[in-house]
């Protein structure tokens, strides 16, 4: 029987890469809507699988998915999916954890290098005044060799970033309570047993943990106070991990030497966010000490192709062969739909 796969909020049009992966016996519905209510109810009902970007998969959506046997998040993070509700409905929820690993790790290192070597600060100063031919605009200069690169979350991306940092002659430490004992030994990294220990010893802190209740606002005023004086804070993970008001206060006080955020608690960024407001004002106390990205650390043409292919493959492997990969709601999944 032909399969039907719904893309409720895909940006891609046409689904050319997906068509190559799916073959002729799969119907792909590219709704390209922002809200659940804007999609034809019959499309929700007849879909065998749903591949979603940012549309919340909550109770009302799950109730509309009469046939769906799997939901795949078209990305690494899966906080848009109600894991408990999908599991109790017998629907596996999966993600694509391996499509942009190198790009995100590269982005974190790029922010660190931009601060250490003043790349962005020099460029902006010279654009404003070509006679500003001086090293003094690099207010975040730091020798990386011998400094400590601290990783919060030593998963795929965190490990990739750590290995890049070590190539610059940095010492690597990490905090990850989810990893079993001994996971650090194969790399020779230092394992911090508490977040406070990691923050207090790191010259650069790079965040690579998923967003869940244990990591929401993980970097708050208390965490900033625990950081090493003048440390860089970099996040290419999820916006709600950092309390941006606490981050701004850390920059103002000088506790934080520099902050690079590719993610914000609410996206796209607005002036209602204290970090965005300070970054836009570009007053002397923040100038050259802050970088903001549009949640694009994952992106390259190659990673985008990988994402689109792998998301569909995850759904098809399960629907056709019963092989479930990258399941993120296994603890709630008792009776999968047949």
Structure notes:
With 338 residues, this protein is α/β, with parallel strands linked by helices. It is built from 12 helices and 12 strands. It has a 7-stranded parallel beta sheet with strand order 8-7-6-9-10-11-12, sandwiched between helices. α1 (16-22) runs parallel beside α12 and α5 crosses α7 (156-167). The chain is globular and about 70 Å long. It starts with a strand and ends in a 17-residue tail after the last helix. The model has no long low-confidence stretch (mean pLDDT 96).
In short:
The chain has 338 residues and is α/β, with parallel strands linked by helices. It is 34% helix and 15% strand.
Largest sheet data? 7 strands, parallel
Question: In order across it, which strands form the biggest sheet?
Answer: 8-7-6-9-10-11-12
For the termini, the CA-CA separation is 14 Å
- Number of beta-strand segments: 12
- Percent strand equals 5-15%
Model regions low in confidence, pLDDT < 50 over at least 5 residues: none
Helix and strand content put the structural class at alpha/beta
Mean pLDDT: 96
Rough outline = globular
Tell me the series of helices and strands, N- to C-terminal. EHEHEHEHEHHEHEEHEHEHEHEH
Q: Radius of gyration over alpha carbons? A: 22 Å
Helix content: 25-40%
* Count of alpha/pi helices: 12
């Amino acid at each position: 029987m032909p399969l039907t796969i719904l893309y409720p909020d895909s940006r891609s049009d046409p689904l050319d890469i997906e068509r190559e992966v799916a073959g002729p016996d799969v119907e792909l519905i590219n709704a390209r809507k922002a809200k659940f209510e804007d999609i034809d109810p019959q499309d929700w009902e007849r879909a065998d699988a749903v591949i979603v970007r940012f549309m919340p998969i909550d109770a009302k959506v799950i109730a509309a998915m009469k046939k769906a046997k799997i939901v795949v998040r078209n990305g690494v993070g899966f906080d848009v999916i109600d894991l408990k509700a999908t599991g109790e409905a017998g629907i596996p929820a999966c993600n694509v954890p391996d499509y942009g690993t190198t790009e995100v790790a590269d982005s974190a290192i790029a922010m660190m290098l931009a601060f250490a070597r003043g790349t962005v600060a020099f460029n902006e100063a010279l654009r404003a005044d070509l006679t500003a031919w001086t090293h003094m605009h690099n207010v975040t200069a730091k020798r990386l060799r011998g400094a400590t690169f601290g990783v919060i979350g030593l998963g795929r991306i965190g490990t990739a970033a750590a290995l890049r940092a070590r190539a610059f002659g940095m010492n690597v430490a990490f905090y990850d309570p989810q990893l079993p004992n001994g996971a650090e030994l194969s790399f020779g990294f230092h394992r911090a047993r508490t977040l406070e220990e990691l923050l207090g010893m790191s010259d650069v802190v790079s965040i690579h943990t998923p967003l869940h209740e244990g990591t929401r606002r993980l970097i708050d005023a208390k965490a900033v106070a625990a950081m090493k004086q003048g440390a860089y804070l970099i996040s290419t993970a999820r916006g709600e991990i950092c309390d941006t008001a606490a981050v701004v206060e850390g920059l103002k006080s000088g506790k934080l030497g520099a902050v690079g955020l590719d993610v914000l608690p609410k996206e796209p960024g607005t002036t209602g966010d204290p970090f965005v407001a300070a970054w836009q004002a570009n007053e002397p106390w923040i100038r050259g000490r802050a970088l903001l990205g549009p949640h694009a650390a994952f992106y390259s043409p190659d990673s985008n192709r990988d994402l689109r292919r792998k998301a569909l493959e995850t759904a098809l492997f399960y629907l056709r062969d019963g092989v479930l990969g990258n399941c993120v709601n296994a603890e709630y999944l008792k009776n999968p739909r047949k």
